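Weekly structure sync - notes
Attendees: PM, LS, DV (DV joined late)
Agenda: review two folding runs queued last week.

Item 1: First target. Sequence and structure tokens pasted below for the record.
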Amino acid sequence: MKLRLYWVALASLLYSSYSYSDSTDVVYGSTNNAASDGLRWVMTNILPQQAGLVVNGVIYRYTTVKQTEDDLIVYVQNENAQGEGYIFRSVDDWSGLPQNTINKTVLTGGIESSFWGDGSIEWEGVGSVTDASVVYAYQYDPCFDPQSRPDCPGYKEPFDPFSLQQDAVNPLDDDLLQQELDRKASLQDEQQEDLDRKKIAAKKKADSRLEKVLGIVNTSLLAADASAKHAELLAMSLMPVSYVATSIPGGVYEDTVVLKDADIKDNGKALRNNLAQQLLHQQMVDLQYDNKK
């Protein structure tokens, strides 16, 4: 019971020593026993990870195991996390003293938590330490970061991009954009018209070349037909003629020639030539049409 009252009195001493006028805004607290799992500990697992937290003091207790005549020095310490050496080191010299239990409070003056490196209890000499307890008294301002709570002075409402309600804008309603679209559409129409004119001119040129080819073919066919007829007539004119002396009785000869058929048949050879010319013309027209497709 006496030990518990001792800890309460020490905590009250620490808190009262480092309070200020706005004490209602400051949170005071103490850690669990840092040495509960051994004589070395990591401070990030001991101190609350709170912005603006400072350590006001260290309260420790341990029991020595030694002979009175033996030399023994015990260190309760924390490394300096921001540099070399120790941020806190308490030295107890038990040399020539009997074994005993010590309860000690060391005020640290509000050192920021980021400086507190790993802690430990070590000793030099003959003996050992048991039943160790190390507690850190701390304080922090919950409004050290004004954005931590809405009721903190200087708190600013976080910006919410979704809170801005904007009317939907149709980009096609923009005059400059619409003018550019109209210009491109007009340019496409002009390009299409130019392409159509080029196609028509190319078709006319191809038709003209085809007519020339057909004219050459027709001329060649006619020349061949004329040459054939000329050869036929020439052959007939070269046939030998035999003259036989005869006497023609006098008198009147009545016309006795009777035509079986009054119709004169067409020249079959000429008809074939005409058909061949027509077929060739049609094939060339069809070939040109296929190429256009």
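Item 2: Second target, run right after the first with the same settings.
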Amino acid sequence: MALGYSRGAIEHRMATGRLYSVARGVYAVGRSELGLHGRWMVAVLSCGPGAMLSHGSAAALWGIGKEWREIEVTVRSASPRRRAGVRVRRRPTLADAHVTEWEGVPVTGLVQTLVDLASVHQRPAVERAVNEADRLGRIDPPTLRRALEIHRWEPGVRPLRTMLDRRTFRLSRSDLEGIFLPLCADVGLPLPLTKQWVNGFEVDFFWPRLGFVIETDGLRYHRTPAEQARDRLRDQAHTAAGMTNLRFTHEQVRYEPEHVRTILAPTAARVMAAAAA
């Protein structure tokens, strides 16, 4: 209508197959079949000016996640809106800085999308989205961690920040030994040697009589190929020497002690039985 089309002109084009009504006030041009991007655009347009994809739908558009049962759209309006097959979320205070366009579709920005995902999904799904964003070069975790400052009052920030901090978590030497050595004692292991050179590499914990080596990693994103290759060489050298080698992350030691015990107990039992035979 803004271009000068009358209602009759619109109806004529619908009758002749040039326009197809796909939602109230929304038309497809030339054909009625819609692909995924078309369905997203219909959902956004049908929700009125200022609407945008968000949450799971935004993650799917950004290529970092999957859409769940229905298309999710955010509107910056307090008025109630209902659309079949569309979950409408109302956020009147959402700032312009957190809204953009991707592949022609209005959408929450990438950081906002990750914050929103963290507010409604569990850690595994959010972590996959963060990893995929990193892999695609959209945003790396350190940059994302810094960007959370301007979102700090939003519900998803705390779990997202906790996840990022845990993934980059590193214990001091004294804290590592203070937490890990009791776990070893719990499963019956004797006191190990620490920071020993074994097979040409410095290892964290070593039981010479048992031929048992445990290494711990303070995981960082973007480990270089050289660092990864060196880790492989360490593991291969210990295996070639007939030793049993385990590797835990600092995150597991600090936050998942039961998992560490679950892995450590049968391994310790096996190496001690072999040493006693």
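Discussion on item 2: DSSP finds eleven helices and eleven strands in the chain.
Action: LS to circulate a short write-up before next sync.
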